[in-house]
Design goal:
With 143 residues, the chain is of the alpha+beta class. The protein contains 4 helices and 5 strands.
Length: 143
């Protein structure tokens, strides 16, 4: 029965833990956590400025560098913007060289949040480019 001792796919494999430890070292050595904290503040600030400019943004929220801008047809009632228009904004960002997403199609009619998750190494210029591209896409699609 000794041949059943290695039945786990990753049992006894040291490469996974080694890779995890190396990732942790890089995050610490390159101060990526500190960068993420600074960039989330910048991104939220930029998104709040977009909210002031575009009435279609009903809410801005996020946790870490996973952020969203909820698009609404009416800020008072929070009626979601139609999904076709939300997807047009996503497509316009892509056409301008910035990849963002939108909430998935799991709840019909409620997939109205633009989602972005910049890399941990994102710079202030990267964050500004993402949000300025979103600004241009919103203006283009909704004008």
């Amino acid at each position: 029965m000794s041949y059943f001792r290695d039945i786990s796919t990753f049992g006894g494999c040291t490469s996974g833990p080694v890779a995890a430890l190396e990732n942790m070292r890089i995050i610490e050595d390159e101060h990526l956590l500190e960068n993420a904290v600074a960039m989330v503040e910048r991104c939220l600030s930029n998104l709040r400025s977009l909210m002031d400019k575009h009435a279609v943004i009903g809410d801005v929220r996020g946790k870490g560098l996973f952020l969203g801008a909820e698009l609404v047809a009416d800020r008072v009632t929070k009626e979601p913007l139609d999904e076709k228009t939300v997807q047009a904004v996503v497509a316009q960002c892509l056409a301008r060289g910035v990849i963002i997403g939108a909430t998935n199609r799991s709840l019909y009619g409620l997939n109205n949040t633009l989602c972005l998750s910049p890399a941990l190494v994102a710079s202030a210029d990267d964050i500004d480019r993402i949000t300025s591209t979103m600004d241009g896409a919103l203006t283009h699609v909704l004008s």
